[in-house]
Design goal:
The chain has 18 helices and 11 strands. It has about 600 residues and is of the alpha+beta class. The longest helix is centred in the middle third of the chain and has 37 residues. It is globular.
Amino acid sequence: MPTYTPPLRDMQFVLHEVFNVADEFKAMPAHAETDADTINAVLEEAGKFAAEVAFPLNIGGDTEGCTLDVKTHAVTTPKGFKDAYAQYVEGGWPALSCDPQFGGQGLPHTVNQCVYEMLNSANQAWTMYPGLSHGAYEALVAHGTDAQKKTYLPKLVSGEWTGTMCLTEPHCGTDLGLLRTKAEPQADGSYRLTGNKIFISAGEHDMAENIVHLVLARLPDAPKGSKGISLFVVPKFKVNADGSLGERNPIFCTGLEHKMGIHGNATAQIALDGAVGSLVGEPNKGLAAMFVMMNAARLGVGNQSLGLTEVAFQNALAYAKDRIQMRSLSGVKAKDKDADPIIVHPDVRKMLLTAKAYAEGGRALQIFCTLLLDKAHHHPDEKVRKNSDELVALLTPIVKAFITDNGHISTNACMQVFGGHGFIKEWGMEQFVRDNRINMIYEGTNTVQSLDLLGRKVLGNNGATLKKFGKLIGQLVEEEGVNEKMAEFINPLAYLGDQMTKFTTEIGFKGFQNPDEVGAAAVDYLRVAGHLVFAYMFARMAQVALRQIAAGSTDPFYTAKLQTARFYFAKLFPETATLTRTARSGSKALMDTDAALA
């Protein structure tokens, strides 16, 4: 059976020693009172909930899955899920980073994201139920009417109700301009929605008394394509004027998807048969409103894979220390045993360190991004808010695609450490692999994220935001460029930073002549950009570790951090050379293939 220990020491290192978040929060009136002790206390308690309540339900939830009563359309979640959610609500966890005016605790997003990393390590399928509610909350805060906010936000904040996002239809996934769900205006100002949605995570369940669906649909006079999409809030149960629940709204679960992973989450097929809803935001501007929820979800999906990478690493490391097989190539290491623990073998260490490096790099990036989000929302300086918002927009597709791709690499590597036992369900490793696989697909496939990064976020503004991130790299290089002890971390970062401008310009010029060149290069380009960002994170972490050691610290944590950073730069970062070359190879080898694909 797998185990899980919340990585509190590494979280505290990144939060307090690398990014000094408490000092950053002091500049934001909304978070000025959030100090390091408060953050640490919250994360310690959250870690207990993740490890002691959510984690023990993970394998059982995967085995049992969700069940649908086709007559009543009711969905029952796996044993223990409902009780765990009740404890979660009772503990006030749904309200952690929500606005106090709606009943929230007003803590920074940065803290909430760390909480969710631990919950995702513990049980991704369970965590998706409360996780989606945060996206619905953010969308309604940004675009909801006063009446909608009054009706829905306090209940979403308390966790009494949960939320979903209803986008996908049987004939359209990414291309939402093709959606057909209709919304007919009514005399009382409401709308009746009719259509079918699929792949709706947490779309129906027994964990909360109401579900608030955010649904994309078309008005009768809507223009074709994505410019004719509106957003509506459609509750499972209608809400009376006094806030009590009214009659059942005709928005029903008609089926549950049979999936590769996340079996404990109800991935629902949803039918709307004249369901009553209200318009969110302006008519035909629904996609922009929904993107508030989608962008939050993309950061959340990256966090899901970060959580799975961490828990897979922990279990693979423990197994590698215990499992004995063969002798070390360099001589016997465990003389009292018939064979050596497999951790002595170089390739086993490579697999373990790959997962460790991708977990620690991903954690630093997630915390960096959510700190930017806090600045974008709460910093008093408009220029800081604008710059932070632009950097988050640039980094969001990297968080979603790079961290989930790395999660795929890492969970598979950790399963490989177990050998044949990794393929067996009782060890839990194959579930981590299966659960992670969806993260590369939903909320915009990783190819879509790559096109978004290169096409919109980089070429779309002639690399202006990329240059802003480049300035951060430049500042670090200038600060540490003459420090010999930092050379092994700074030099590769500086080199790639310099190459990135030329690389981007070259692809942009070719794409101007033939747009397929952008499509052919995008996936490789995002991975290069991901390594650029991770290299910056590891250089920052190595900088702190070296300073602590120089100051006399004998804490092995800092030595371990430096060893992980060295492994990253030696064994993982160099793939940027190959990726740059394949990105530059052009589209001809892909598009001039009609005979090969006949």
